[in-house]
Amino acid sequence: MSTPTPEKGHIAPYTHPAAGWGALKQVAINLVKERVGGGKYKTLFKQNQPDGFDCPGCAWPDRQHASTFEFCENGVKAVAAEATSKRVTNEFFAEYTVAELMKQSDYELEQHGRLTHPVRYDAATDKYVPVDWDEAFRLIAHHLRRLDNPDAATFYTSGRASNEAAFLFQLFVRMYGTNNFPDCSNMCHEATSRGLPVTVGVGKATVLLDDFQLADTIMVWGQNPATNHPRMLNELRDASKRGATIVSVNPLKERGLERFVSPQHVTEMLGGSGTRIASMFVRPKLAGDFALLKGIGKRVIELDDAAVASGSPRVVDIAFVNDHTAGYEAFAADLRAESWADIVAESGVPRDEIDALADVYVKSERTIMCWGMGLTQHKQSVHTIQLLSNVMMLRGNIGRPGAGLMPVRGHSNVQGDRTMGIEEQPDDAFLDRLGATFGFEPPRHHGQDVVAAISAMLEGKVKVFVGLGGNFSIATPDTPRTWDALRQCDLTVNIATKLNRSHLVIGRDALLLPTLGRTEVDEQNGVPQGVTVEDSVCMVHMSYGMNKPASPHLLSETMIVARMADAALGSNKVDWLWFAQDYARIRDAIEKVIPGFERFNERVAQPGGFHLTPASRNRVWRTESGKAQFLVHAIDHDTPIKRAREQYGDDLLVMMTTRSHDQYNTTIYGLDDRYRGVFGLRRVVFINRADRERLGFAEGERVNITSVWEDGVTRHVQDFLLVDYDIPAGCLGAYYPETNPLVPLESIGDRSGTPTSKSIPVLLQRAVSAVS
Ligand SMILES: Nc1nc2c(c(=O)[nH]1)N[C@H]1C(S)=C(S)[C@@H](COP(=O)(O)OP(=O)(O)OC[C@H]3O[C@@H](n4cnc5c(=O)[nH]c(N)nc54)[C@H](O)[C@@H]3O)O[C@H]1N2
Ligand SMILES: Nc1nc2c(c(=O)[nH]1)N[C@H]1C(S)=C(S)[C@@H](COP(=O)(O)OP(=O)(O)OC[C@H]3O[C@@H](n4cnc5c(=O)[nH]c(N)nc54)[C@H](O)[C@@H]3O)O[C@H]1N2
Ligand SMILES: [Mo]
């Protein structure tokens, strides 16, 4: 990997509330920077409107029939990035070799603007050259046909793909003969999707947005909504204003959860100080949540035991437990037996704070628990999320108004893509219906997730990579190894809107296929097509692009998939192009295969769409026992981190990798992380001051970071600025994707396979910087 260029920037604590004028200023900057001109401004006001497009920013839901534009800095950035007037043309590719483009930063690559023409890699000149669409599809078909085993191809999906594109994609891939569906959720909410079905039957949210208006307590676990889901703050603001308690459980006291000025409300904008959001900040050490949840559970049981002894009203919702759950006695017994000393040591939260948190929980009649990447990207994440749902079950907080589970998803349609069958472990019922509808025998053996796909490429078992969006080469862990893996492929295909690193880290043959974005008019046979998406609360709705396409040569993702399938498989069984000419036909097919989509076209035409109600919301439990299941899980005492600490003592620190304010995953819009007080810098590492002093580093010193893993491979990144930060002792924070080279491919969550990108054991060394 290239040596980093030194960054010029500064650190200055942010003292204002979240959003407010700071966000508005940012909006103006983005529109100007992207040179979004003419009528495209009006697009912004069509975001998340019944007749507009679904915001590509995040998966946070919007109020049904929303009649006013809901301001969101995140959304503006996403829309402006897509509506930019900058273009990557054929002349651009004629000018630069791939090796030259590799020297540019991710930020610089993003700045070149929208891709405009399909291109093919020419190894002789190390340049991309124009290719026509037919030839591109023929090349893909050629490579796919020559593989002796369909499992030697792998098909990645990033969560912006529409339901229609995703459904056709999975059908194509399964007819081709494999379940190799690595997707971004493998790195994201997989622990939720694998964990919750075992306890409550469905891996999705049980709440709707209206429940936020009824909740007494909203707990936000491991999430930074001011940056990643700004519209969530409006919901939290309203809840706080009517007296609900909002708790943040996070090693960091994220500024955005302290105070918020709603850009929707003129008086707040003028008044300046905003509304207090969280009134309680509980700060576990990294991955301390499992033990903390044990602590809450233990306290609930202790209070309940005391209530039983004294004949007072029960603390546990015993009616719910008796009617709806299995495994309660063993669960309660385990909590009684758990030691407080272990809970405190493992969570990093003092006993009185655990009690205080548990007291808030037991006093609350209706609790919603939200969670994000802070819970999902650890070794024990599946157990943590199962325990979280179990703690909620103790008080009957699932399946009644104002209470429930709320995994907050990332990409705007990541949840929908999974519903459509982007799933490497499909169940038989789904495959049966798919096979019966389309007259073929789908492959039954499980396919590859992200980590398995990379390993298979490294072993030479996968030769063709197709990416439907995303930035596989740097969103994934163990960057140098992942690059080796991709470079061993015979063909890599990337379907994308904008240039990124994955278009430069390629196989011997490579295609870069430009596609329409969500905000653009998608016409087939002269008729504008809508696509559908599913948000974090399972609302399925329609999205219509409004902007003129960035180039006349773009195809929609759906059409690209259809033509790829037609070229590779022919159209005898499925008339791919017929489907792609009218997306309503795809929706009719979805209706036949996927439960919950009855009268799909009709229902999704309603403003606001429809709710794909998860059974758990109605207290129907699709688990093995038919009940909501309590599980007994122990604190994990033998982890790579603990083993590394035995070896290195207190020199060993644990690092989380997280998002800055000015990035969307691997897309770097700007170099600031406003709420955390970082400006113009990305190669920073947040450290507890006492740790820094103990380790003998000066403030503002530069360090190299090495991760500790048990395979003899050296993984390091260089020249990071140490920044004193209010972070628990022993913990570090830094940005993704710069730190992804530190995450070992084999360091994955138990049962989720998710890279443990918020639990990386590392050591710091003084950087002998050529710069200073
Ligand atoms: N602007 C913007 N919006 C986005 C994205 C983006 O990159 N930029 N990405 C989208 C995607 S795909 C996703 S998945 C979401 C991600 O949104 P989030 O889930 O908010 O993800 P992160 O920013 O990675 O980190 C979340 C928080 O977890 C905390 N945390 C870290 N480790 C722990 C832990 O062990 N325990 C606890 N309790 N907390 C911890 C961190 O301090 C941080 O506040 O946002 C989506 N929206
Ligand atoms: N260390 C570390 N690693 C992480 C994480 C972390 O917290 N820490 N988070 C993980 C998470 S939660 C996620 S979701 C993944 C994200 O992984 P990905 O989804 O693979 O990455 P993105 O950066 O969201 O992908 C951005 C690219 O998608 C393309 N794109 C944008 N819009 C469209 C569209 O409409 N269609 C098509 N075809 N392409 C489009 C653009 O070319 C853009 O460059 O990263 C994961 N990796
Ligand atoms: Mo994500």
Report low-confidence residues grouped into runs of 5 or more. none
List how many beta strands DSSP finds.
Answer: 33
Distance between termini?
21 Å
Mean pLDDT: 93
Range of strand content? 15-25%
Compounds present? ligand MGD, molybdenum atom
Helix content: 25-40%
Gross morphology is: globular
Please give the radius of gyration in angstroms. 25 Å
Q: Number of DSSP helices?
A: 30
| Largest sheet composition | 6 strands, mixed
Q: Which structural class do the helices and strands define?
A: alpha/beta
Strand order of the largest sheet: 6-5-18-17-16-7
Question: What this model shows, in words?
Answer:
With 772 residues, the chain is of the alpha/beta class. The chain contains 30 helices and 33 strands. Strands 6-5-18-17-16-7 form a 6-stranded mixed beta sheet. Helix 7 (133-146) crosses helix 25 (557-569) and helix 13 packs parallel to helix 19. One ligand MGD is lined by residues 58, 74, 188, 221-224, 227-229, 249-252, 254, 284, 286-287, 289, 372-374, 410-411, 656, 658-659, 663-665, 758.
Give the arrangement of secondary structure elements.
Elements: E1 10-11, E2 18-19, H1 20-33, H2 40-44, H3 73-83, E3 87-88, H4 90-95, H5 98-102, H6 106-111, E4 114-115, E5 119-122, E6 127-130, H7 133-146, E7 153-157, H8 163-176, H9 190-199, E8 217-221, H10 225-228, H11 230-241, E9 245-249, E10 259-261, H12 266-271, E11 275-276, E12 280-282, H13 289-310, H14 318-324, E13 325-326, H15 328-337, H16 340-347, H17 351-363, E14 367-371, H18 373-376, H19 381-394, E15 404-407, H20 414-419, H21 428-438, H22 450-458, E16 464-468, H23 472-475, H24 479-487, E17 491-496, E18 509-514, E19 523-524, E20 527-528, E21 531-534, E22 539-543, H25 557-569, H26 576-581, H27 583-593, H28 600-604, E23 610-611, E24 628-629, H29 640-648, E25 653-658, E26 663-664, E27 667-668, E28 678-679, E29 684-687, H30 689-694, E30 702-707, E31 715-724, E32 731-735, E33 760-766
Helix pairs in contact: 1-3, 7-25, 8-25, 9-19, 13-16, 13-17, 13-19, 22-24
Bound molecules: ligand MGD (2 copies) and molybdenum atom.
